[in-house]
Specification:
Length: 381
């Protein structure tokens, strides 16, 4: 009797010791991964300008862990409180400071100012970033009207750009010149839970499971305004939205090509990757993931897009950086291995999350222009 009692107590204690960290991880996952309000705070001004000229800028970190380090490889927008400019390649760096190429933009940046390196690399909108004429338009979706930037083109192909989690339409400004040069009409869209746009009924992200309806509405808008076919461009979670659309929408037959940059193709693997990077106890993830799905009422299978990839019939251009700390590059490795017949894979050494353009802007844009020439013919019928 005492043995059975002791065993029951031990089992209870063991279950408690597993459940408590499991609950903590489940709640942390929901807070950091599913709540849009957590993404509404702008990145901090986490670097300090120590010297600046018309050709160079010297930066040092002003926070323990800057979002983008002073010596982050590639090209960035350097954003301060009073002005901005373009920060280019690193000329020299040590453990304290980094000297980068620099070109002034608007406003004023001075030595002593605090600033941040913005990976989207361009300010404002298509006109401010590239001098492109554009219109503010809206399209009707199941949850209401959503805003978009429309850049006119000269062909019957439209490119529709879907940004990632916590990002905004500016994320598409880097790739925009390649699509405009290709003659495409371009639509940079918003979707549910974006700031100022209609919210999801539960108020949470669903990693494409539901957001695809908003992309579907944008595609319908393009088709209703003269598009014969569409090229879909998705960044990060925008890649998940794009693949969800491809698996669920009748309009998918009008898609002639996909461009995916660090797409979120499998959320459970992405969560494991993030936990490992954050030095969280991954041995509890099996429990915490089950708890999270029960408490917050979702199925992990809803966020697995590998089966959709297996069924694709359109060419795919896939970018992914090999030091991505948000979405593991292994996922895109798997996608490329799954569909070598359709996927052109550009695995970028030294690039972080959606930073393939930043590492080599000219090469990125040229790759896009060459790829879209291979898009699938689409019949209007």
């Amino acid at each position: 009797m005492r043995v059975r009692t002791a065993a029951a107590i031990a089992a209870g204690v063991g279950g408690f010791l597993v459940t408590v960290p499991g609950l903590y991880l489940a709640r942390r996952l929901h807070h950091e991964g599913f709540r849009p309000d957590r993404d509404r705070t702008p990145d901090p001004l986490d670097l300090q300008v120590t010297a600046i000229s018309d050709q160079t800028v010297t930066l040092r970190k002003a926070a323990k862990s800057p979002v983008n380090a002073a010596d982050a490889p590639g090209e960035y927008l350097l954003q301060g409180a009073r002005g901005w400019g373009y920060a280019g390649r690193v000329l020299e760096a040590n453990a304290i400071v980094a000297v980068r190429e620099f070109r002034r933009g608007e406003g004023e940046l001075r030595a002593g100012d605090y600033a941040r390196l913005d990976g989207f690399a361009h300010p404002g909108n298509p006109s401010e970033a590239h001098g492109l004429a554009f219109e503010d338009v809206t399209f009707e979706a199941p949850l209401g009207r959503f805003d978009a930037w429309y850049v006119p083109g000269r062909t019957s192909t439209w490119a529709i750009l879907t940004h990632g989690k916590g990002a905004d339409r500016r994320e598409g400004l880097r790739i925009l010149p390649a699509l405009v040069d290709s003659g495409f009409h371009c639509l940079l869209i918003t979707y549910r839970n974006d700031e100022g746009e209609p919210a999801a009924p539960a108020g949470f992200y669903s990693y494409g499971r539901d957001e695809w309806e908003d992309l579907d509405a944008a595609v319908s808008y393009a088709l209703g305004h003269g598009a014969n076919d569409v090229v879909l461009v998705g960044f990060s979670m925008g890649g998940a939205v794009t693949l969800s659309f491809m698996g669920k929408s009748e309009n998918a037959r009008r898609v002639s090509a996909l461009v995916l940059d660090a797409p979120m193709t499998h959320l459970e693997e992405t969560v494991y990757h993030g936990a490992r990077i954050a030095h969280l106890p991954t041995k509890f993830l099996a429990v915490s993931n089950r708890l999270a799905s029960r408490i917050y009422r979702f199925r992990w299978s809803d966020f697995d897009y590998f089966e959709t990839v297996r069924q694709l019939e359109v060419p795919v251009l896939l970018f992914h950086g090999d030091i991505d700390r948000t979405i593991p590059v292994d996922l895109s490795d798997s996608v490329a291995a799954m569909r070598p017949d359709l996927v052109k894979y550009v695995r970028v050494p030294g690039a972080g999350h959606v930073r393939a353009w930043n590492i080599d802007p000219a090469g990125y844009l040229e790759t896009v222009k060459n790829f879209v020439r291979t898009r699938r013919p689409v019949s209007p019928s």
